[in-house]
Design goal:
This protein is an alpha/beta fold. The chain folds into 2 domains: 7-228, Phosphoenolpyruvate-binding domains (TIM Barrel), CATH 3.20.20.60; 232-270, no CATH class. The protein has helices at 7-11, 27-31, 51-63, 80-86, 102-110, 125-129, 131-135, 147-154, 165-177, 194-207, 220-226, 231-243, 259-270; strands spanning 15-20, 37-41, 69-71, 93-96, 117-122, 144-145, 184-185, 211-214, 250-252, 255-257.
Length: 272
Amino acid sequence: MKGPADPQQLASARTLLFVPGHRPDRFAKAAAAGADGIVLDLEDAVAPDAKDEARRHVLAWLSDGGTGIVRINGPATPWYEQDVAALSDRPRTVMLPKAERPDQITDLLSRLPAGSSVVPLLETAAGVLDARAVCATPGVIRAGFGSVDLAAELGVDPDDPTALAYTRSHLVLASAAASVAPPLDGVTTALHDERALVTDAERAAALGFTGKLCVHPRQVPPVTGVFTPSDEERERAREIVRAATDGSVTVLNGRMVDRPVLERAHRLLSRP
C-alpha cells in the first residue's frame, strides 16, 4: 500500500496482513508477502509490557520509508494517547479498534495531520448497531469486521457460519448506505486450514465483502484469489457493458440486462 494519501487503493484492497508491532524482523517479510497492505499492530498482538517497544519499532519503520496502516490501541486503553501523539507528525492511515461512535473518529482525526484516514474496526455490539453512522463519518475509507471480538462479547462461536451472518450483512448494508467501500471481513484463526480460510472468504464475498483481514502470510494468496474476479466473470461483465449500448433494458443470453445489472458489471470491472 502506497500510504495514507491513496484512499482508492485502500478502498479496493482485497487483503490486509497484520504484523505484530514488537516484531520488526517481520515487517519487511509482511510487506513482501503479496498483500494489498499491511497493518502494523500495536493492539491485540502486543503484550502490555511491550507496547512502548512496539510503538518505537513501528515509528522507525515508517520513518525509514516503510508503509502500512497502524492499528492503535482503543480509546479506553492507557496506551491510546501515546499512540495518537506518536503518529501526529505526518498524515497517517490508522485502524481504530472498538470503534462505536462517530465522535471517536472525529476526535482521532482532529489530532492527526490533514490527509489522515481511519479504518474503524467494528467489533462490539454497540459499534455494529451504529455502523452506518460510524462509516459515514468523514475520513473513514472503509470498515473492518472484528469477528472474533464480537463473537466473544455475544458468546457465540466465531467459526459458526450462521452465528454472525446477520452482522456481516448489516455491515455491508451500513457501508453501502454510508457510501464507503464494502467492509473487510474478520480474520480466520485456523492458520493451517486453507479449506476453512477459503470457505470463510467465499461466504463473506457472497454477502458483499470485497476483502479480508489476514494474520499470516500464507493466508494472503488464497484470500486474494477469492476476492479477485475470475477471467470468466470479467468477460461476462464486458459482454454486459457491450450489450447495454444505449442504457435501455436489453437481453443477453436469455437474461435481462437493465441499469442495476450494468452498474454491477462496471463495479466488477473496476476491481483489481
